[in-house]
């Protein structure tokens, strides 16, 4: 049954009730770019958790200065992000050599971090820092996904 025809609950092959068959069907059988985007989001959430865990542990438990704890957390999360995105989100890692991918990945992270910081700073006087950062993160996630998919891993990436 095509994804757009029904969103009514139905039973899965194992007899479980599916409450969102259209969505699960789209993720299973649908557009590979949508599947990659969802995976990219999952990796982003995991990276945030890893970054915070490293920062809080380094600073709170080990007494590392905050700036160094932040750099360590960001670095560990960035390595995780590259590895998981290369091997899971964009399975197979595309067509570019690994060295080129790493350089491009670092460049994309620097550019996205700069855009985030500048945009948040520009919007903060009007909205406050937290709302401004939430406003910025939505389009930046899409932009980061596209840059990672096409610039870092090249058109040959697949999921």
Automatic annotation (TrEMBL):
Gene Ontology CC, one term: plasma membrane
TM annotation in the entry: 37-58, 64-84, 105-127, 133-153
Keywords: Membrane, Transmembrane, Transmembrane helix
Subcellular location: Membrane
Record domain GtrA/DPMS transmembrane: where: 39-153
This protein's record includes keyword Transmembrane: yes
Membrane listed as a keyword: yes
UniProt-listed InterPro entries: GtrA_CellWall_Glycosyl (IPR051401), GtrA_DPMS_TM (IPR007267)
One Gene Ontology term from the biological process aspect of the record: polysaccharide biosynthetic process
Membrane topology: Multi-pass membrane protein
Signal peptide stretch: none
Family: Belongs to the GtrA family.
UniProt protein name: GtrA/DPMS transmembrane domain-containing protein
Organism of this sequence: Sandarakinorhabdus fusca
Lineage: Bacteria, Pseudomonadati, Pseudomonadota, Alphaproteobacteria, Sphingomonadales
